[in-house]
Amino acid sequence: MVKVxxxxxxxxxxxxxxxxxxxxxxxxxxxxxxxxxxxxxFGRVNQLRQxxxxxxxxxxxxxxxxxxxxxxxxxxxxxxGMPESEWVSQQLGFSVVKAFNNVxxxxxxxxxxxxxFPSRVALPVxxxxxxxxxxxxxxxxxxxxxxxxxxxxxxxGVSNQGNPLTVLIRH
Length: 171
Hints:
Layout: E1 2-4, H1 10-18, E2 21-23, E3 35-38, E4 60-63, H2 69-72, H3 76-79, H4 84-92, E5 96-98, H5 105-110, E6 122-127, H6 130-142, E7 146-149
Parallel strand pairs: 1-2, 3-4, 4-5, 6-7
Antiparallel strand pairs: 5-6
């Protein structure tokens, strides 16, 4: 089951329900979650920590955000070189997988293609946890996209908004 908490209007919830999603209050979002995907403005991530108390052991948190100083205000550790995902991990108190941060939601639907299809869209995945990385890689593959994993699935070197990652994959 996919659960969604949003501050958006009720119409969004109605649309989500027709897509098989269950709208829940933000306080319930982490309960029984295997994978928690965070898609909020980067500067508000620290507000989520209070809702993660019911996150099951072994659950994976995916950080989809990008730090944009004009929107998020200054975050000194990131400005001084700390990787965004490391900062997010510190804010949440959990390790995170960085994925989906260089693609807009519409692209996930529009660009989904079956395995082996030429010109499949590729997304990078980064994390300190190789097993979490592989779980998210599998999810991305099921969504119809290809995965790019940096050596040893490290957080560093992530492609952020405004810094495109271009990769040519030859079969």
